[in-house]
Amino acid sequence: MITDVFLFWFLAIVTLAAGITVVTVTNPIYSALALAMTMIGVSALFVTLGAYFLAGVQIIVYAGAVTVLFVMVVMLFDLKYEVVAFSRGKVSGALKLASGATLGGLLIGSIFLTVNGVTKAVSVGTSEKAGDTTKELSRLLFTKYVFGFEALGVLLLIIAVGAVALARSKGGTHAEH
Amino acid sequence: MSQQFLMATLILAPLIGFLINGIRYKKHSAEVAGAIATGAATISFIVSVLFMVQLVGSEPENRRIAVSFFDWINVGALKIPAGFVVDQISGIMILVVTGVGSLIHLFSIGYMHHDKGVAKYFAFLNLFLFNMLLLVLGDSLPVMFVGWEGVGLCSYLLIGFWFTDQAKAAAGMKAFVTNRIGDAAFILGMFVLFLTFGTLHFHELNHLMPASPALSWLSPLTLGTLLLFIGATGKSAQIPLYVWLPDAMAGPTPVSALIHAATMVTAGVYMIVRMNPVFLMAPNTMEVIAIIGGLTAVMAASIGLTQWDIKKVLAYSTVSQLGYMFLACGVGAFGAALFHLMTHAFFKALMFLGSGSVIHSMHEEQDIRKMGGLKKYMPITHITFLLGWLAIIGMPPFAGFFSKDDILWMAFHSPRGHILLWVMGFAGALMTAFYMTRLMALTFWGQSRVDKKIHPHESPALMTIPLVVLGLLSVIGGWIGIPHVIGSILPGEPSNILEAWLEPVLQQVPGLEHGDPSQEWMLMGVSVLFAALSAAVAYNFYVKNPERPKALANALGGFYRLVADKYRVDEGYFALLIQPLVKGSQGLWFYVDVNVIDKATFVVADVVRGGGNFVKTLQNGNIQRYALYVAMGIVISLTYILLR
Amino acid sequence: MPNIDSAVSSAAPNMVLLTDTIPVGIGLTHYLVLSAILFVLGMIGVLLRRNAIVMLMSIELMLNAVNLSFVAFSHFLGLIDGQIMVFFVMTIAAAEAAVGLAILVSIFKRYREVNIRFFEHLRG
User: Fold this and answer.
1) What number does CATH give the domain C50-116?
2) Partner of B227 for a Cys bridge, out of A15, A106, B66, B189, CB 3.0 to 4.6 A?
3) Which CATH class is domain A2-97?
4) Which residues of chain B fall below pLDDT 50?
5) What per-residue confidence (pLDDT) applies to C22?
6) Best of B623, B632, B634, B638 to disrupt the C interface by mutation (most C CBs within 10 Å)?
7) Sign of the CA dihedral A115, A118, A119, A124?
């Protein structure tokens, strides 16, 4: 029991710290690396929640592919000078912070109002093997959500073609291909 | 032939003539257009004769042919069918209108021979005839009002016929606008009568009258009849709305003869005679009518003394004679008014046509100072004009004597009459004799002052035939109304045919007693004698001693100039009514329309533009700003949901 | 979750665990609050950072937070559908990141800048 608590809090703090780093540091490379850390933290949280397959996918896809993509792009741009990290305007900046904070407060408040202390999980304590969830996941994916699954495939095809097409152009808003 | 068919023919023949000539309005042939128009008018005349024959053949109580064609207005309590009635009064009117009208159509063929717009002219003339028949035959006030408005329209179209001349077009507008003021009062009068009595049919109104007269100035009967009378002053050119008639002489002369002498201007008199029981029960209104009639008679006659345009003299004479007709109505002598209407139609139309003949042969010259001695060149015109002159100055046995004397006698004798009214009528008669003799003298008699380049000649037959017919009527026309005092001494004892004819439809003035024959003889003798004396003086002034009138005019100086300037009434109206209206309108335009209303629209436009500019600033291209808007939207909606 | 508790209690049967006396457990609320905070962080990053790449990264952060809340719900309500959702979201997020970066590359090639303050062309 206490391990769950400890594990959760540790992972939570790590993820939060990494998240804050993403948003606040000036160097985009550091942001990218912090993003990777956040994703690993989230993956670990997935494990504590029993979603083993998803944890794996998170590492492979997110931390592995997406973050690397980001890093490659940052390096491609070779951005050296980032004098000011944040947008101009003190008033709008304060307004943005305030709305962000308000939204956070509202969300947390609504969480506390609606979730009636579901502390005892239905499935905490029951032993699950990693294979069980994966089997269940795949079964559902190919029966109930097969349409979405296929659509995703088409989408990925389009994305691939589109990304290549974009990358081939000379750039700019009115560029010819 | 059924009554409906006859009535339809009577009314629609001129309308069809209008349509045919209207479609071919660009044609130049006066003979064809004139034939169509005169033919239509003659058809109407024949039908009128047929109707009158029917009426003469019926019993005196049954002399009423009523035809209704369709339901025109049917709204709540107001039910007005398109109904027309020929009875004793309208029978006389349709004979006069179509008979004199046909003669004038014939005359116009010769007069308008060289005019380019002759088909249009005949179309308008036929349209006028149609509307006049609607007016005279209508059996209710609204149907009459349709004709009333229609003749006003035709008057405008025909006065401003040569509209390329600014002054003539303006004269047309003046006639129409002045008429409209009267018409507004007419409509208000209709409202009052409908509200009080619930009906607008003549037959029903005449029978719904209370037994005792309405004595208060504010009673609805007095107000209604007063308003109707104001409408009549507009149409029949009485004070204060007479100012359009002299200007209306800008139209072609046959138009002046038909519309502004014989028919349209008599519409007001006809209306009052038609509703005589109603007016009899409003003695205050009748007093007003009599006084205004008398004043108009005197005033117009005085202006006629000073005019130099042949048509203007006749115009003021018309206004004056109309005053006599209203004077008769005002004292309760409705029969006399109708009688004078008829005889006046004959001799005034005759004189207008005669003046048209003179103008035509003098190559459009209208100033009588440039005429003179025309009797050798235009014998037929001269003889017929002479007959008209004798009629209008009231010489027996010509038509005008009987009708005018009837009026003067009733002005003196009727319980609603007054000695002063007789004096006004008498003064007017004296002046009428004077200025008409002056006109004759300066135009036909004496030395010729005609310009050497103009060779006056007699007019063609198309123009002289109507003159002859009307001349004949001016002689014998009065013989249907021979008063008893004269009839009793003549061989064969002719009775007063007209009085007997009209007796079933005209109510007597309450309290009218038999007159003393000797009083009647005395008044008659006095008026005839003094009229003859007045004519003799005028003859002396203008034929024998031409320098005397000039000396008199110089002696009177300022007063003469005032009268010659028509008492500056037009200028007075302009300064007191028209200028303030125009200035007021201009002020309203500038201060209200431009400054307030236009500014308000500009302000609205500016506000919208300002609002748009402000909203424009929200879209500054900064995507983070847009994301902020999204975030704020989420916050607000979440707050709303949570707080609910 | 490997049963460490049973291992500990079998190893030291007399040890009184703190968690037996103090009823503190990690519930749905904790995960959801964490998810909310991550989400807000991501949103602030989108609103405040000027670098377009960092903005995209912040968007990824927001998506991760949502994934976390999905999985938390799936776990605590016993429905596996939440994990399916995560599946989809992850795919879409990856695809979107790819396209976004491709566009950024395209823009960078033309303007040599990724600071969004230079890209305010679509103004009113």
Assistant:
1) 1.10.287.3510
2) B189
3) mainly alpha
4) none
5) 42
6) B623
7) negative
